[in-house]
Write a structure and sequence with these properties.
Layout: H1 3-37, H2 42-66, H3 77-125
Organism: Hymenobacter chitinivorans DSM 11115
Transmembrane segments: 6-27, 48-66, 86-107
Keywords: Membrane, Transmembrane, Transmembrane helix
């Protein structure tokens, strides 16, 4: 039996489903942060959110495709499960890292926007 096909047949669909699930979650919940960062400009926030979603898909599905190949010899169901767990574990860790990276970027952007707003408000409120 060709165990590589078994691993590929499980790995790719699970990876794509995980990527889509995480991406949709980030897309839906990230919008609120982006609207705040862009001072209520919903059109700009939605555009940036779609661009982030596209980049997220490209990076994660591209990496999953690159790591699809397995050079190890798989001779049993146990070997299939072990290879699959390494591949899926790697993808899950990468998705988690991308999630925290996105949160960090949102935090930094929001912080910068708040600093700008405080500075701008200070200048506006300063008496002439």
């Amino acid at each position: 039996m060709n165990y590589h096909l078994l691993v590929y047949g499980v790995y790719l669909p699970v990876t794509v489903l995980l990527t889509v699930w995480v991406a949709r979650t980030l897309f839906t919940n990230g919008r609120t942060f982006l609207v705040d960062i862009f001072h209520g400009n919903e059109h700009l926030a939605d555009s940036v959110n779609k661009l982030l979603l596209t980049g997220f898909y490209l990076i994660n599905i591209g990496y999953a495709t690159l790591t699809l190949r397995s050079t190890d010899e798989i001779t049993s169901y146990q070997g299939s499960v072990e290879t699959l767990s390494i591949k899926l574990g790697t993808i899950i860790l990468i998705l988690g890292a991308m999630h925290f990276f996105n949160l960090y970027v949102f935090y930094k952007l929001r912080h910068r926007a708040q600093e700008y707003a405080r500075t701008y408000q200070f200048v506006v409120d300063k008496p002439l």
